[in-house]
Design a protein that fits this description.
It is a single chain. The protein is of the alpha/beta class. The protein has a single domain (7-251), classed as P-loop containing nucleotide triphosphate hydrolases (Rossmann fold). The longest helix is centred in the last third of the chain and has 24 residues, at 167-190. It has helices at residues 18-27, 43-49, 60-76, 88-101, 108-116, 129-142, 167-190, 200-205, 207-217, 238-251; strands spanning 7-12, 82-87, 119-125, 144-148, 153-156, 196-199, 232-233. The mean pLDDT is 93.
Length: 256
């Protein structure tokens, strides 16, 4: 790369392996602390996340300056490289705030560069949309979103509940994740972005090779991936396989 990167954005959708990729990158000690630093589409939520209060600022623009400075500090750690995971559902609000913060920037990529500096875009997707949809529905039902490699819970949003097969919910989820991926692809085309494409399947089959590829794209030493073990466990089990088989039987081989 001709110039050192300042930031990278992992452009993704739910259940595409972004937590795994973020934790792998953080474990290298040189790629920042990537996370969903602007996840909830609410300014109040952003302020709360960084211990800030709206009463401390005279305008939304001054509040946004403080929020983005705090996010960059948190997401860079001591590495000087800011890592950001961006779910497509959070993206429109995020860009609206960047427009307020940098009103003279002409394009989305100009606004992102004004906020973070030279930024590399990574498109993390999942080829098997049915598996992605089932994972999403199951997480929503059970409340369990992630387990650590030792099987302890990393993220739970509700009390434990058993998963129940729901063909309509799965069908809606397939449409949702497909539309989210299409929205990213359209945005890359509109902004003339050549994003690095990584898939969930890449990560799950060979995390070391996938991480090496990302590090190389970020201008970092790919060898840093060696020896880093996946810090999260796969949640897919016999229930996922059963649901996929039932759904395909009801909807044809495409599973749509």
């Amino acid at each position: 790369m001709s110039a050192r990167l300042n930031a990278y954005m992992i452009c993704t959708s739910p259940r595409s392996g972004s937590t795994l990729l973020c934790r792998l990158l953080a474990a290298t000690g040189c790629a920042g602390l990537p996370d969903s630093h602007f996840h909830r589409p609410e300014l109040a939520a952003w302020l709360k996340a960084y211990g800030l209060s709206h009463t401390d600022f005279t305008s939304n623009q001054s509040a946004l300056k403080a929020i983005f400075a705090a996010a960059i500090e948190r997401g860079s750690g001591a590495t000087g490289l800011f890592g950001l995971r961006m779910q497509r559902g959070s993206f429109d609000f995020f860009m609206q705030q960047l427009t307020l913060l940098h009103p003279d920037a002409r394009t989305d990529t100009d606004r992102i560069a004004a906020a973070f500096g030279q930024t590399r875009f990574i498109h993390l997707t999942r080829l098997d949309k049915l598996a992605q949809a089932i994972s999403l529905v199951k997480a929503q039902q059970t409340g369990l979103w992630h387990r650590a490699a030792d099987a302890s819970e990393l993220e739970r949003t509700s009390t434990p509940r058993p998963p129940v097969y729901d063909a309509d919910a799965i069908r809606r989820a397939v449409s949702e994740v497909t539309e989210l991926e299409s929205a990213w692809t359209e945005w890359f085309d509109q902004q003339s972005i050549s994003a690095l494409r990584i898939t969930y399947e890449d990560l799950s089959s060979d995390a070391t090779t996938a991480l090496s590829k990302v590090l190389d794209a970020l201008g970092l030493d790919p060898a840093l991936a060696e020896g880093i073990q996946p810090p999260v466990a796969q949640l897919a089990d016999a229930t996922n396989a059963d649901w996929a088989g039932r759904f395909r039987a009801q909807n044809g081989s495409s599973g749509r």
